[in-house]
Amino acid sequence: MTRLAVSARVVTAPVAAASGPVVLAAVTAVAVIAAAASPVAVVAADRAAGAVKGDRELGQYLSSECVTCHQISGRYDGIPPIVGWPEESFVEILSEYRDKKRENQVMRSIAVKFSDEEIAALAAYFGSLKPRTD
User: Fold this and answer.
1) How many domains does the chain have?
2) Which end of the chain has less Cβ packing within 10 Å, N or C?
3) Strands 9-13 vs 2-6: parallel, antiparallel or unpaired
4) pLDDT tens-digit readout, 4-17
5) Of 42, 45, 15, which Cα lies nearest the Cα of 27?
6) Residue 133 in domain
């Protein structure tokens, strides 16, 4: 048996004593299938492709902490508005705070609590809102 480490999982595949393209293809196929079955690999691939779509209702549920500082009206009162942001930008920026690639201790402490799915949900919710013009 040959062990392949794939996305923090160990996959065991039988490998014949013979070598060659057929054996290599079988081992490669097992590794690809195992990687595709891993939720971590799927979310990472989706995030890299910008394909994670958020649940707007979940985003609304999670938004209470955000609107403590960011105005739900979309007005700028010293803290940047997040209403109406494009979803991809929202996901990228909040993920960068979570991953400590952006400087702001308050945003980092909040963003670290959210999974990729929750960040996408917040992006869907805030992206669906329109700033008030009154």
Assistant:
1) 1
2) C
3) antiparallel
4) 333 333 333 444 44
5) 15
6) no
Domain housing 107:
2-127
pLDDT in tens, 62-104: 999 999 999 999 999 899 999 999 999 999 999 999 999 999 9
Within 8 A by CB and 6+ apart from 107, the residues are 94, 97
Query: What CATH number is given to the structural domain containing 33?
Result: 1.10.760.10
User: 0.70 exceeded by the pTM?
Assistant: no
Mean residue pLDDT across the chain = 75
Check: CB of residue 55 under 8 Å from CB of residue 122: no
Does any domain span residue 132? no
Q: Which residues contact 45 (CB under 8 A, 6 or more apart)?
A: 51
Phi-psi region of 100 (alpha: psi -120 to 50; beta: other; left: phi over 0): left
DSSP H/E element including 64: none
Structure token pair of residue 125: 């919710």
